[in-house]
Amino acid sequence: MTNAGDRAGIDVVEAYNTQSYGSVIHLDERLMGYERVVLDSGERERVTVDAPLETLLVLPGDMDGDAEELTIEDGRYAVTVGDLTETFTAGPAVTPIGRPRSRRSSS
Questions:
Q1: What strands lie across the sheet with 84-90, from one edge to the other?
Q2: Whether residue 49 has pLDDT greater than 80
Q3: The dihedral of CA 66, 68, 72, 75: what is its sign?
Q4: Coil/strand/helix, residue 58
Q5: For the chain, how are helix, strand and coil distributed in percent, rounded to 5?
Q6: What is the pTM of this model?
Q7: How deeply is 57 buried, as exposed, middle or buried, from its count of CB atoms within 10 A (0-12, 13-18, 19+)?
Q8: Which has fewest Cβ within 10 Å: 30, 41, 82, 93?
């Protein structure tokens, strides 16, 4: 990020997620993280925004009340920071995060 102005300034860099499809109703864009930046005139700084996977968690089945745990749904996601966008696909290999899974005994 560069402050091209003639005075010091403050900006907030935000990271947003969009999901191509989901079984749960959610906002078109979800804020994943942000970083407040203060730069002097002409100053340039690399900005890192923490965007934890936990921000992608949903409670499947929450509409009909039969949900068991928070999970990251399979599908295509895009993360946008400013005018930069990176896409990725989440599938069965993604381990759900959040509440621990309950282990059921097979007796």
A1: 30-39, 9-19, 75-81, 84-90
A2: yes
A3: negative
A4: strand
A5: 5, 35, 60
A6: 0.67
A7: middle
A8: 93
Distance CA 67, CA 87 (A): 27
Average per-residue pLDDT for the chain:
78
Report the candidate in 84, 2, 14, 11 with the shortest Cα–Cα distance to residue 46. 2
61 backbone φψ class: left, alpha, beta (φ>0; ψ -120 to 50): left
Give the number of C-alpha atoms closer than 13 A to the C-alpha of residue 78, restricted to the C-beta side. 12
One-letter amino acid at 75 equals G
Rounded Cα distance, 53 and 106, in Å: 31
